[in-house]
Amino acid sequence: MTNTTPEATGLYRLSEVLAATDARLGEEDVAGLGPWATGFDPLDGHLAGGLRPGELTLLGGPQGLGKTTFALQVARTAIAAGHAVLYVSFEHGAVNLLERLLAAESGELAGDHGVSLKAVRALLEGDRSAASLQEKFTRPGGSAHTLAAITADLERLHVLRGGPTTDIAAITAAIDTILARGQGAPLVVIDYLQKIAAPASLLEEETRMSFVAGAIKDLALAFSVPVLAISASDAAGIAEGARMRTQNLRGASALAYEADVVLVLNEKYDVVARHHLVYGSANPERFHLYAVMSIEKNRGGRAGIDLEFRKRFDQAMFEREGQVVAEQLIDSRIFVE
């Protein structure tokens, strides 16, 4: 007998969707219905609450400007709220991600007095002693409350170490494993999506990215999970004195079509108008302290909004309280130092 259920055919009557949604609202756990906060203000306000299940959010930016840092802080917000997270990492090992999370946790709990990323690495790797992590973090220079605050939540953070053969099927299998563990549908973070394996027959960049982006969006819809995918930039996007935009993502046209939200990071000093550097500030070097996050596409609200967040990369974090950029920004500097 042919299976004609909506799950099998993909054909839904909206009356069925309404009834199912109403039934879910009567359950105790309805966290998956609404947006998942990123934990950054005012970003969440402009995204109508955060990242939404079934939607794909792209994050672009030049190398070294904190894309992984931002993604891990979003993951930290999700696990603190009781959600599971699948972090698909092609760029960093699991220990490296743990070090970053611990440093950022210390920074958020203790401010500038928190343990630096360098110090966390020394605690985890430096003395080759047999002491436990708890013992190391209670030593002078450590931060015992940091480890205590984050330990329980890390049960919900899963790292899939990506490699040359890691494809959409592997990511799907990882989500199935998390669901089987009873932790619910996870936020999926992909760092970064250009490294997801695609069929060898897809040789051109745009064709590959069209396949990968479409598959990621299908995955988000199938599991009703939010996906945050970091994207690499093309050569023009990392050119000195130029502002990176959506069109500078590798495979940009395919990615921009599938994405529901596109966020792009830039160094504030590199994109602020020249008159602010020369005439408008007694200390133009302060612009180096901030990254600009531009909301370049936003299906759930306004786009074309530029926010700024202070960098604290010695602690592997951004300050979560930002603001709308007050200065004029430009796409290309008139001069290059």
Automatic annotation (TrEMBL):
**Got a GO cellular component term for this one?**
cytosol
Identify the residues that the record assigns to the SF4 helicase domain, covering every copy: 29-323
Record-linked Gene3D superfamilies: P-loop containing nucleotide triphosphate hydrolases (3.40.50.300)
**What is this protein identified as?**
Unannotated protein
Q: Does the keyword Ribosomal protein apply?
A: no
Q: Name one GO biological process term.
A: DNA replication, synthesis of primer
Q: Which UniProt keywords apply?
A: Primosome
This entry's Gene Ontology molecular function terms read: ATP binding; DNA helicase activity
Organism name: freshwater metagenome
Per the UniProt record, one Pfam family is: DnaB_C
